[in-house]
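Cont'd.
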Amino acid sequence: MKDIISNLLLQAAQTLVSDTSQLSIMLERPKSAEHGDFACNLAMMLAKPLRQNPRAIAEQLVAALPPSEVIAKVEIAGAGFINFYLADTTKQLIVKQILEAGSQFGHNSTGEGEKVQVEFVSANPTGPLHVGHGRGAAVGDCLARLLAANGWDVTREFYYNDAGAQIDNLTKSVLARAQGLATDDPSFPENGYHGEYIADIAKAYLAKETVSADDIEVTASGDLANTESIRNFSVAYLRHEQDLDLRAFQIQFDVFSLESALYSSGKVEETVQALIESGKTYESEDALWLKTTDYDDDKDRVMRKKEGGYTYFVPDVTYHLEKWNRGFTKVINEQGADHHSTITRVRAGLQALDVGIPEGWPNYVLHQMVTVMRGGEEVKLSKRAGSYVTLRDLIEEVGCDATRFFLAARRADSQLIFDIDLARAQTNDNPVYYIQYAHARICSVLSQWGGDVAQLASRDLSALSAPSEATLMQKLSEFPEVVKNAANELAPHMVANYLKECASDLHSYYNDTKFLVDDEATKLARMALISATQQVLKNGLDLLGLSAPSKM
RNA sequence: CUGCCCGUAGCUCAAUCGGAUAGAGCACCAGCCUUCUAAGCUGGGGGUUAUAGGUUCGAUUCCUAUCGGGCAGGCCA
């Protein structure tokens, strides 16, 4: 529809401007229905080059507009906006389109089947997932769903930092617990993990339990002298715990990558050699440095420490080189903003390797901190102190759908306050239920009608002319744009906002109009409209990974 | 001190590429169930978009400065 109107405007513009090739016709959805169904600011854009009053230009444009059946009325308003009012029959087309496209409505083929990887969560295997990981999980999963809806071939990936100093720390903590040390014991590891789950791991280790995660299975030796065994068991144990967390959150990954594998395969060493050969490194103070200042960093960064180990960003560079070699020309990393300093380093490393990776690759979506409130007080999230709200606790208290919605419905780059009491106490006022309720209401009406939904697409829709119906149809027609924009902006929250609006229009319609009326043609047209709305709500809820219940 | 993110109604948050009278929910006030699910709807009050400048037909949006909050600036991740 946008294309049709743009085309009309372009033809009109040709009568005023000799060269229309540089002209971009921008059509927007006015916020207010008084301003029509589409509005165009072309006259204002042309005001300067033509040195004329925008309203005068608008009048000339409108006069030159070729006649079209799809448009009922064109008006000039405000500073020079050209407002288009669609004919009723044009508005009604969307209902048919939705019913015919079904679950594919709103999807497009922008990605052309190309590979894209979304890496998200990527928590260290040093504890259960907490709310911050939950935000990453909700946002990352929605991004993946959005990209898939835009025609991309999506791979969801989780990267485990299972090789660094934090893992040594974990191993020491488990050992200390297994030896019966309390966390406040002077000989407990200084930066050890204090959470009770460490004691659980120690107990399981001593009991020689077996745990499995992804493709590995580890049985504890129970031998306290064998730190390698403690380490492997602890990591596997926590990976298993995280798997359970993710399952409770209904999130699935296609690939789990391990930092340790990059070391054992020699890939890290290869990267370091390649970087040395690139001439972008130097030795100083017994350490090896990368000249990241050549790539917009404030200072150079250490690659190899005095003790000989590599700093965390070195395997990160290796990992991303692997991603590139695996054919992902588009990669999106969803992570907490507290790790934003790695972006410059990873990109610097990749550029220094000079293997043809574009400068801005990979893409990052950073989410800000989540503050958890309980009983009017902030719950501090400290893994080492061990007092924090786990994702699984949250899901149990608030529910999976509500938790996902809360965490994905806000812009990633603003801080989020998650009030547990509020989320739990106001379960019924939760926006996710508002949306799902709209869906359930439609299901209920359709089932009471009892007719054949599949036949609705071919029904005569001319009875749909009331304002509440026009509003709803207009909203439905926006869905494909929302899917496209949200993917372009990597902003899943736009889907959540849209769904709230769509549900609101449905609820208004529901209260304002009786659907199951005696007049057959009117009834069928209304069945078609609410059935189309049901489909859009379902498709939208699906993008957020939420259920679309038929009964509530 | 330096870099990044944020600052919108009492609270939690929106606002598409710079567009028209800045919108929802919660809370507050007044209405709507004999009628398809009241987990709903309708109406009302509530704002100098942190502050001061700048860019232009037009700024919540872009630029500069200031204030406030968060994060980072470890040879931790």
